Each structure stands twice: as C-alpha cells, then as structure tokens.
Amino acid sequence: LETVADADIRSRLQLDIAPDLSAYCDPALAELVFIQLFENAIKYSRHRTSPYLSCQSVHRNGKDYIVVEDN
After folding, report:
1. What distances in angstroms separate CA 43 from CA 4, 28, 33, 71, one per listed residue?
2. 5-14, 16-25, 33-42, 60-69: lowest mean pLDDT where?
3. How far apart, in Å, are the Cα atoms of 60 and each of 6, 27, 47, 57?
4. What is the pLDDT of residues 49-65, one digit of tens each?
5. How far apart are CA 60 and CA 24, in angstroms?
6. C-beta separation of 2 from 10 below 8 A
7. Is the per-residue pLDDT at 37 higher than 80?
8. DSSP conformational letter for 20
9. Contact (CB, 8 A) for 63 and 18
10. What is the dihedral of CA 30, 32, 37, 39, to 10 degrees?
C-alpha cells in the first residue's frame, strides 16, 4: 500500500486481505490489476473517516474468484 496510499490514508484504512489468496496467473499482470483496483478504491473512499478495503477469495458455482470491495 505504500505505493498507492499516503501515510494519512494508510493510518485510517481498515484493511482486510485474506492471508491465503492465490491464483494461477501472470504475476506482473496480476500486480498491475491489484494496484489499479487498490488505487481506485483509495481514491474514491479517501475522504471517509474509516475507509475500508477488502480482498477475499470466494468459491461460487464451481469457480474461484478474488473479490475486492471498498466503501
């Protein structure tokens, strides 16, 4: 998060990232995707008193997904 959020937002951010996330993918492309998702989440919730960012693994209909949510 140091690369996408300043110290103020990091101090207020409630972060919930699943410890066991894994994916079969190109690591460099996955990093770009997550940086973009996190930047957007922080950009649009930075003025909230308690910004929230979650990244979880979900299994639905026989498939695994990584879900990113914010407030």
Report:
1. 9, 22, 15, 11
2. 5-14
3. 35, 23, 33, 10
4. 888 889 999 999 999 89
5. 17
6. yes
7. yes
8. T
9. no
10. 150
pLDDT, position 48:
83
In the predicted structure, residue 20 carries a pLDDT above the cut 70: yes
CA atoms within 13 A on the CB side of 44: 9
Question: Residue 2: pLDDT above 70?
Answer: no
Strands (E) in the chain, as ranges, are 14-17, 52-60, 63-70
Rounded CA gap, 49 and 47, in Å? 6
For position 62, what pLDDT does the model report?
A: 93
